[in-house]
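Hi, here's the filled form for the chain we discussed.

Project: internal
Contact: R.S.
Residues: 750
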Amino acid sequence: MASTGLVLLQLLLLVSLVSASHFFGGSSTFTYKGKNPDGTFQVVVRNRATIDGCGTLSWGCASGNCGSITKTQNYVTDKSTNSPQSTSQWCETETVETRKVTSDRPFEMRASSCCWINTRNSVNNWRLNTLVDLGIRSDTREPNRSPDITILPFMRVPENCPRTYKLTSYDPDGDRVQCRYGSIANVECDQCVTPAGFHLDQNSCTLHYQSVAANLKAFGFEMVIEDFSRGNINLFYSDGSKSYKHPLLARRKREAPESAPQNAATVHPITRQQYANTPALSKLPLHFSLLVDPAAPSCQEGTYLPKFVHPTSENGAHITAEVNKELEIRIRAQATHSVIKDLIISGPTNVTKHKTTHDEFVIRWTPVPEDFGDHFPVCFAVESAAGSSIYQSEMRCVVVDVGKEQIEAKVTCSETTMTVEIDKSSFYGLQPDHVRLSDPTDTACSLERYSNSTHIVGVIPLNACGTQIEEDDDNLYFKNVITTVEEDEVLITRRHLVEARFYCQYPKKGNVTLGFTAHRKNVTVWERGFGTFTYQFEFYPDLQFRTMIDPNSYPLEYDIGSRIYMQIDASSSINNTVMFVDSCRAAPYDNPNYQPTYSIIENGCTMDPTVQIHAPSEDNQFRFSMEAFKFIGLHDQVYISCSVMMCEAGNPNTRCSQGCVNSTWSGGHMHYHRKREAVIQSGEHFVSQGPLRLKRAADARIGGSDISLNLNLVFIAGCLLAAVGMVCGVVLYKTKTSRVKYQPLPSYES
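And the returned structure, exactly as it came back:
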């Protein structure tokens, strides 16, 4: 048995050595987590490693009392095949170690072995050293905390494009953070040489790439991050001892240049002493790789190099997250001469990335209670491709500050609705009439309807109340938000502002196990000045518009190119009103907010060339028809959604009287709800009907079967157990709709 165990240990060591044979970089931070019941101290150490293969590093105690490990968790943060030619991929992992130490005196941990990827500055072995000091500070009366550092594990830049990298180094104690190259051989660095073509501003932790010839080998950066008190302080320890710390002294003049002339590929040894007689509070390693690629045709951001655009956060921004609530960080980039391919990230444990069909990237992360009060940097860059060339955007980093859960809420997802329940006790003064959904005009969207004395309850249809649809390769997300609402004519508010975002997630793949009612119900709306009115949207078999198609026959099937006849009716309790159809759009889902859509009518003008407007039999009626089509791609169904409104008949100042306009009418969003003024038009309301499906050639084949199932059935009816309801924290962005437009297939395609 002992022999078998020894062989197994040798195999594990061999696997560990192989997995760590292509090192790209690594880092380490620590966080004090309080005292244990037995009087010992608890500290969490987060070690990151980027390796060709998702391996981890082995850390050992270099000096002092490093304690013992009570818990270890390993996670993969990100990985990519866009790496130097000598490697197959890079993969960043994070190891979270919870340590139990008997003393709060300083100790050092070290990871060292072989080998880096092939580097052009002769870095071979990795040497990472972390100094942990948990002494009680005289300025904050709290244990010392390390800076929070993160950097992308592998970066690349064209040789002809100067670039600046701001190394994230936020310090929760407010200390002054300095970044330098490692200078102690075999402790902080291997060869301790400075990469050519770069300049490091140590005071601002900013790395400037200037110019150097491209090479298949990457530069290996071996840096050290240190924090220094801004005033004279003492650190007190549990054994009664203390240490004195003073501010950073002036740096001595450099004895060797950090930059190099054009196309230089040499390296310069570090021969200077960085600081004189100034002990750091903590020391952290920050090692990474950077590849200089061949020249780009243009260094202008947004041409070949991706350029960040709204809603991407600015570099260095602080974003507040709440415990147990998912945070979203939305990222968008554009490039006119290359294709956006991927997002690379570095962030906290369990952070994930997704690409939506709106050509945006989303970083999602849910803090756990143990993260409360901590700060987590998240760095990201977008990669694009043009031929065989890979281009990387600038690196941006944000700091996520984790606070307590502000509002206690629960979301339940069903096949047709999202139910959100907010505990009133978690937010003092919160009442149903103080908050609203994205679009509360439909009576089904009232938060007062289901609320009770203890909870605000909303039952939100997936296709109403301003619910937005977002999708990625695997899931559909139905999203809405509850926000504070004010009464008309109120200029100020003393209420707390509320913004609770929530969503339901449905897998796209699954089996159909339940039925559904396809035909959409009438929309009934009450609005001041117009009373109660009902919209009815129906399909008809022919131009006569005599008998609507039986609701039990939905989904309706059409041949491509055949004509679809539609009619919208409005019945109102107020006389002297007219109905106006401002827009109609087609989408593969029953949601007016889905993007992209195909425009049929916009601003009262027909957009599809096959649309015909037919004479109505009544004033509050709109009849039109168009040729059937399908969306390009996998979607096998079409819903038609229209934006309609009611106006005072005969009034030339209403939107209804304007008819077709070529651009957005300036008064289109004015509801005329001003004090002492008569209401002359209603708000916009959405009505929809469908789905419409194309008749398929497979239906006529002997023994054939239609296996292209309605997508709504697939992702909703068959996957209810997999549905996920989430309440998100406040997100600092606004959704930007996609500019992509679907086109209908011509009549000769089937």
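Let me know if anything looks off before we file it.
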